[in-house]
Amino acid sequence: MSEFSEWFHNILEEAQIIDTRYPIKGMHVWQPQGFKIRKYALKLLRELLDEDHEEVLFPLLIPEDELAKEAIHVKGFEEEVYWVTHGGLTPLNKKLALRPTSETAMYPMFNLWVRSHTDLPMKLYQIVNTFRYETKHTRPLIRVREITTFKEAHTIHVDYEGAQKQVENAIELYSNFFDYLGIPFVVTRRPDWDKFPGADYTMAFDTLMPDGKTLQIGTVHNLGQTFAHTFDITYETAEGEHEHVYQTCYGLSDRVIASIIGIHGDSSGLVLPPSVAPYQVVIVPVLFKKGAQTVLDFCNHLKNMLKDNGIRVHLDDRDLRAGKKYYEWEMRGVPLRLEIGLRDIENKKIVLLRRDTMDKETFDYQEETIITDLNKILNGITQNLKTMAWEKFNSDIRPATSLQDALDILKEDKGIVSFDWCGDESCGREIEEIVKVDILGVSEEVHEGKCINCGSPAKSRALLAKTY
Ligand code: PR8
After folding, report:
1. Residue ID of nearest Cα to ligand 1 atom 6
2. Superfamily of domain 397-465
3. Å from CA of 139 to ligand 1 middle
């Protein structure tokens, strides 16, 4: 197990994020702390999606004939589908699949729902669990067989331009989401051999975990008219003609939480961005016999004030050594800790520890401004986490001018290697063969330069990395 892997497993357990002891491989239990982080992350995403999408909820089971209708799609998923074959003791006359994703659950209904051009665009999403019988090594939150938080959006448009514009909108939406969480990423267009089964093309978000491997944390697919033809989803134009629609879909998973934990965490444990922290502030009273009640009263008053102003706060008045409490809240990643003793109250001071920097400072306490002051610090933490993560990320993307160069970088420094590429599939597969890692995708067009492998004119800048 790599050092990061070990750290990751330990922190999931110690911080009570998820329990991996559930007796089915790849399926885990969300514990209260993890569930709260998940809840706040979902809240952020819902706020973004609800601007112009509507939430729906489809059944978990998909009839075999619907799943099988789209040949390319089903081929891509056939080895990963879990099947329900019986109802009690009775064999079902039609097998039912546990959704690996919901195109084939939703699109037969879209066939019924879409009537006129005035119904379009239609932008729907759902947040559900999906099941994939992954054959690669499973890892908690990173590669699971029950994706417990699959956020899938599906959109329908009258023309190709509408779908293409939606791909751009979705990329912007997900970029904003990852920005709120301070997760750095690259967006690339996946090589054709690695696109979503049934898509015209796939755009993917990748981040870097501390062990130097990239993690695909989200994808946006332009489905063109493939599924529209398969499920005969048509609309009536203003002129009374019937046309097939154009579609997109995009999704995120539990990997969002894995990347928050992996990217911001440190040797003392979790470091949570305030937006998803179960507690944003923890107050630890420093109690001695003298004045203990005064300190507790003050801390309670402060707690209530923060709470009334929308800050998630906890007063830790357990009868434990302060050091033990500090260790615990640091490990759990609480962004801000306030330590308050009698002398501090008398001097109108509080001691404040920022989890992102571990800097401790004595802070002037003023009742009138304390909320604004703390919110300012919390925002500063959000910004700082993002800046630190992006700095690290950018320094881990290195250009290579030859395949040997790429090999050396991947061996020594890990991370992502950028290079000029002709875009040809056989050349790309050859590169993957030689460097033994995957081409993530292409990030931008280039107008000069030569392909790192075959030497013909390069079409684009591409990225290589060891992936999860
Ligand atoms: C779609 N259909 O399904 P996608 N464990 C954790 N995360 C995973 C796993 C897994 N086993 N498999 C995939 N992901 C489209 C879009 C509706 C929504 C994550 O797309 O198959 C990856 O981050 O690409 C992936 O980018 C995302 O789910 C969407 O899955």
Report:
1. 143
2. C-terminal domain of ProRS (3.30.110.30)
3. 14
